[in-house]
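cache lookup: miss for this entity combination. No prior model stored, computing from scratch. Input as submitted by user K.M.:
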Amino acid sequence: EDKVVQSPLSLVVHEGDTVTLNCSYEVTNFRSLLWYKQEKKAPTFLFMLTSSGIEKKSGRLSSILDKKELFSILNITATQTGDSAIYLCAGIIQGAQKLVFGQGTRLTINP
Amino acid sequence: EPEVTQTPSHQVTQMGQEVILRCVPISNHLYFYWYRQILGQKVEFLVSFYNNEISEKSEIFDDQFSVERPDGSNFTLKIRSTKLEDSAMYFCASSLGAFFGQGTRLTVV
């Protein structure tokens, strides 16, 4: 069964800290991995990672994929209270039209 | 920026009633999806739809569920006879998850 596991499930840090969120996957015929930020309702797309070892960056957020060890990390530097959200990762299966989601990491940034 | 639009944002229905959740996907996208998220749980795939046909569906998507694209723009999810355990957020998506709608919160009482 295809599985995506995120850790930690919950994280509380102070504003300005750097955080690393983890996502490991066991997905048959893995194609890509996506990261999302979920605040109140819909997941908002952050990154799609297909190639191993290539960092993707957007402002204070960055992410990288390791296809040998089957995991990805999402880094957020200089965190702000607006970064508080649930961060989701999801795997895409080659040839399939669906995402397999992890359970999410609830990130809380305290001022 | 293009967006996926869902209506209603919240629907309350009695157990056993039929509900139709509506989505207007981004117009030039070809694949559409429904996902659901029960409160506190992970987002789960329900069904993908391409060229007016179901492309793939999960075990959750049983005979109580159906999807259609009645008029070339709207994309609907129908639950024929709702159960308490159908209470969840239902998300429509396109482009393999690059775009999610804001969701419909379905509450079955």
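stored under new cache key. The mean pLDDT of chain B is 92.
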